[in-house]
Amino acid sequence: MRRRLGDLLRNKCITVNRQRGGANIIIVHLPSDIKPCRELIEAEESSLMEQPSEDYADYYTDPVRRLIVFDRDKRHCVYCLLELSEDSFVLDHLIPISKGGTNRKFNLVATCEECNQRRNKKDQDPVEFLLSNYRSHLIKQDEYIEQKKYVESLLNQQS
To answer: How much is the mean pLDDT over the chain?
Structure first.
């Protein structure tokens, strides 16, 4: 026990203020106040910052991550708002791979098979495709506005 107290004193984990004629005051320092501990904490925090975010993982081929996108999009087609099931949804790339898109979370949306095929055949911008669905009366004006904001927010998160 005495040896461990000596270690704590030597490493400045505790400080003893000796009082004349009274009890000593023992101060216990937080790890962030102790230089070697603070250096370890800072090193760990910087290594955590260097690790890639989950948002950069491949959400297209991983079955579990595919379902995360499906749930994020509230289990509805982003383009026509048709309710989807785990067996019927398709992931669509907002920016196609051929144009520099990725399989990352913010470049993928849940769609129905029909919307996915129609959009890809025309190689249409996702916001323009939403507009064409609105003009075709597949979605209402307020739905178009809401979905447009949503798709644009995903596109903005990619940079």
So the answer is: 87
